[in-house]
Structures are given as C-alpha cells and as structure tokens.
Amino acid sequence: MEIKRIVVKENLFAKNDEIAEENRNILKKHKIFSLNIMGGPGAGKTSILEKTVAGLKNRGISCGVIEGDIAGMFDSERISVFGVPVIQINTGGACHLEAMMVKKGIENLPLDEIKVVFIENVGNLVCPAEFKIGVDCNVTVASITEGEEKPVKYPLMYSISDVVLVNKIDLISAVEFDINRFTAFLDEIKKDIKIIPVSGKTGKNIDDFIQYIVERIL
Ligand SMILES: Nc1nc2c(ncn2[C@@H]2O[C@H](COP(=O)(O)OP(=O)(O)OP(=O)(O)O)[C@@H](O)[C@H]2O)c(=O)[nH]1
Ligand SMILES: [Mg+2]
C-alpha cells in the first residue's frame, strides 16, 4: 500500500514566517525598534526588563512590553508598575511564542505612542529560537548560574542572537563563572555578537544595554 508522507513542520514554519514578516512590516511602518528577549527559565529576563524600561522612561523614550508565559500574569504585573503599556500572552502550554500570538499583542499596543517594543519570550533555551516573530533584534539572557558551556549546548539560540546579556554578574565570586571561557564557547557558535555582562538585580551595566537600544532606535 502506498504510504503518504505529510511534512507538517515545514508548512507550519512557512505560515509562521509569513506572519512574522507581517509583524516586521507593522513595526517598521510605526518606526518601532523591537527586541525578542529570550533565555532559560529564571535567567533574569523580567528583572533586566524592569531596569531597562525604567531607564528608557527616564530618558523620555516610551516603550511597550509583550510578556509571553505558558500561564500566569506575574511578569506583566511586574512591568506594569513602571506605567508602560504591557500585554500578557498566555500560550496555554506552548513553550515559545509564535508570530500569530505576537501579532495579537502588537495589535493591542498603542503603536503611535511608542518607540521600542520588548517581547519577553517563554523561558526556554530551545523552542523560542525556532520560531521567528518578526523583530529587529534577538537578545539572549544567559545567567552565569547556568554554566559557561551553554552556547555550545544550545547552539541555535546563540547563533540567532544579536546580543547576549550575561546576567547575575553580582554572583560571580560565588558561582566561579569564567566569562572568558563563556565568550570562547560563544565564539565557536557566532562571531558577530554583542556581549554585555549585567546584573538585573543591582542594575550594573544596564545603561550599556540602554545605550545600544537608543543607538538602534529608528
Ligand atoms: N542575584 C541576582 N539575582 C537575579 C538577577 N536577575 C534576576 N535575579 C533573580 O532571579 C530570579 C528570576 O528572575 P526573573 O527576572 O523572574 O527571570 P525570568 O528570566 O524573567 O524568568 P521567567 O520569565 O520565569 O523565565 C528572581 O528571583 C530574580 O530576583 C541578578 O542579576 N542577580
Ligand atoms: Mg520573566
């Protein structure tokens, strides 16, 4: 009997890419610089966003935030304290944001009033890297508590990143993390990448990240 083969994955990605392109066009039309903030669970994505959103606000730069989580409102509640528009997307089980989910988020933001959109992806070092969402800049938050070799163990995530924020740098003496070893591993995966060691807790070097964003605002 003839066996039928249906390649579902490719088609799904193709449709996702199409919607990601629509997102890119909507954001471009409104001259909004957009960032996809990715990283493992608890790496410090929201902590860094709290400091970054506050810093941008102090500079008079308005932003919006889309929070992606499987369930719950914790992260959007943390961000809303800063008086910026924030949309919580609950994926209901999916371990990543897809372009259609992000599109719904974008459509609910006041696009004429903001210059920057942050999209915090679901905490996961694998799946978010596989789904384009149509942003200008992919950021991976790498916590030093995860270990130095993660770039070579999760190569796709690091290979699609434009910026790596090496977070929890305040814990460096306790964790004995060797940043040179980390950057050497990262260099094996991707050469052209901006690395900023930061602390989402103390705010150390968050200004460098803010400066990078300011320089890229359209
Ligand atoms: N010491 C220290 N703790 C941090 C730092 N950044 C975040 N944390 C702590 O790490 C934990 C997780 O931080 P979050 O900002 O919620 O991490 P997240 O990546 O947004 O987590 P998910 O959204 O659940 O994936 C919290 O207890 C934070 O206080 C840091 O730079 N230093
Ligand atoms: Mg978070």
From TrEMBL:
BP GO terms, sorted: protein maturation
Domain annotation CobW/HypB/UreG nucleotide-binding: ranges: 36-196
InterPro entries reported in the protein's UniProt record: CobW/HypB/UreG_nucleotide-bd, Hyd_mat_HypB, P-loop_NTPase
Keyword Hydrolase among UniProt keywords: yes
GO molecular function: GTP binding; GTPase activity; nickel cation binding; zinc ion binding
Chain segments annotated as transmembrane: none
Pfam family name, one: cobW
Record key words, sorted: GTP-binding, Hydrolase, Metal-binding, Nickel, Nucleotide-binding, Zinc
Keyword Nucleotide-binding listed: yes
Family the UniProt entry places it in: Belongs to the SIMIBI class G3E GTPase family. HypB/HupM subfamily.
Protein name, UniProt field: Hydrogenase isoenzymes nickel incorporation protein HypB
Organism name: candidate division TA06 bacterium ADurb.Bin131
Gene it is expressed from: hypB
